[in-house]
Design brief:
The structure is a single chain. This protein is of the alpha+beta class and 372 residues long. The chain has eleven helices and twelve strands. The protein has three domains: 124 residues, Beta-Lactamase (2-Layer Sandwich), CATH 3.30.450.20; 77 residues; 148 residues, 2-Layer Sandwich (Heat Shock Protein 90). The protein is 47% helix and 22% strand. It has a five-stranded antiparallel β-sheet. A hairpin with a 5-residue loop joins strand 3 and strand 4.
Length: 372
């Protein structure tokens, strides 16, 4: 073994004497980049000790903090008084109490966001004699999250604006092309009539894209109304929506007659099932004769299946759930490539997922968390 490697290994070996001498605790305590506070068990705890990171984060020297109430560091001076009992109850139940966002105050008066964890210090009889508080400054992360949120809102408003501004001229374009064909079609040559048909077809595709984009934004941003719903009633509603169009194509729609209660947003669930059935009708091909809805469950999820005997996915993978992604089987079929992306968004917001079934036939499995 090279000399350098031996030196590094020798240097990084753990020294067991550290834990016996108490120096290990001292080293862990002093090297932490997060603020560590040791508190007593008074009604409003006092600071018994703090690590060097506390001095850096809050701007106080250790001597200025030891013996002072920890409320000195809280932006809300009454926070501990108002939440003491809930902190104690949660700490007894979970072993700690975690605040993902708590506002603290530096010596210069600056208020800043933190992650804050409080853990009880207990003796051998499980009696609490103090607390350890760990505070992490998340100012930078908080600013980035706010910027991301602001930009997301701007993008959403931009998308709404684009949809609104495109819709009116697209409708007008379709109407003018239709009137031109109806009134002057006999005056146009073959190429002129072909152009009119192409204009109408293109405007229809633009309208389909606008509607799909609006539907995606709605699926992603609208507040869910979670309530107990009857899945059998939802299945019947969806079946009635497609009964006429399915029968005209010679396709049979089947739904299970099984009483199931689950918690979900009813309109979102109908939208997801509608998109999956539309997908089957569009891409099932000449072989399509049946579309069936089904239901199974696991310990954690309600699982709804939409299965058809059509052309199949031809080896398509999970990438078909990506936005604007159209599979090989979708070529030449009108669509914006957002239908399955909308289903995925609805599934995620219900604590579940959308996946492709394992069999040879086309099957989509939509799972919804039982914990909603």
């Amino acid at each position: 073994m090279p000399t350098v490697a031996r030196q590094i290994i020798s240097f990084t070996k753990f020294d067991p004497s550290l834990s016996r001498s108490g120096k290990l605790f001292e080293k862990v305590f002093t090297c932490q980049r997060d603020c560590l506070l040791i508190l007593d068990n008074e009604f409003i705890p006092n600071i018994v000790d703090c690590n060097p990171a506390t001095e850096k984060i809050f701007g106080y020297r250790r001597q200025q903090l030891v013996g002072k109430p920890v409320s000195l560091l809280h932006a809300d001076g009454d926070f501990l008084k108002n939440h003491r009992q809930s902190i104690i109850s949660l700490a007894r139940k979970e072993g700690f109490c975690y605040f993902p966002e708590l506002w603290m105050r530096r010596r210069d008066g600056t208020i800043f966001p933190c992650e804050h964890t409080v853990t009880p210090l207990c003796d051998e009889s499980s009696n609490c004699f103090g607390w350890v508080a760990v505070t992490r400054d998340i100012t930078e992360r908080f600013a980035k999250e706010k910027l991301l949120s602001d930009n997301t809102e701007k993008i959403k408003q931009f998308a709404y604006s684009i949809c609104h501004d495109l819709k009116s001229p697209t409708v007008a374009l379709h109407w003018f092309a239709e009137r031109l064909a109806d009134r002057c079609g006999h005056l146009l040559d073959e190429q002129g009539n072909i152009c009119c048909n192409r204009i109408r077809h293109t405007s229809d595709e633009i309208m389909l894209f606008i509607d799909s984009l609006n539907e995606f934004i709605s699926a992603r941003e609208c507040v869910l109304s979670i309530e107990e719903i009857d899945l059998e009633e939802v299945f019947q509603t969806v079946k009635e929506l497609f009964l006429h169009s399915a029968e005209s194509l010679g396709v049979r729609l089947t739904v299970p007659e099984r009483p199931v209660k689950l918690r979900a947003d009813r309109l979102s669930l109908i939208r997801a099932l509608r998109n999956l059935i539309e997908n089957a009708l569009k891409h099932g091909g000449d072989k399509l004769s049946e579309i069936g809805l089904g239901y199974i469950e696991s310990d954690e999820f309600h699982i709804i299946s939409v299965k058809d005997d059509g052309t199949g996915l031809r080896g398509e993978g999970e990438e078909i759930f990506e936005l604007f992604k159209k599979g090989v089987h979708s070529k030449g079929v009108p669509g914006a490539g957002l239908g399955l992306g909308i289903v995925k968004e609805i599934a995620i917001r219900h604590g579940g997922s959308i996946s492709i079934g394992p069999g040879p036939q086309t099957e989509f499995l939509l799972s919804i968390s039982k914990g909603l």
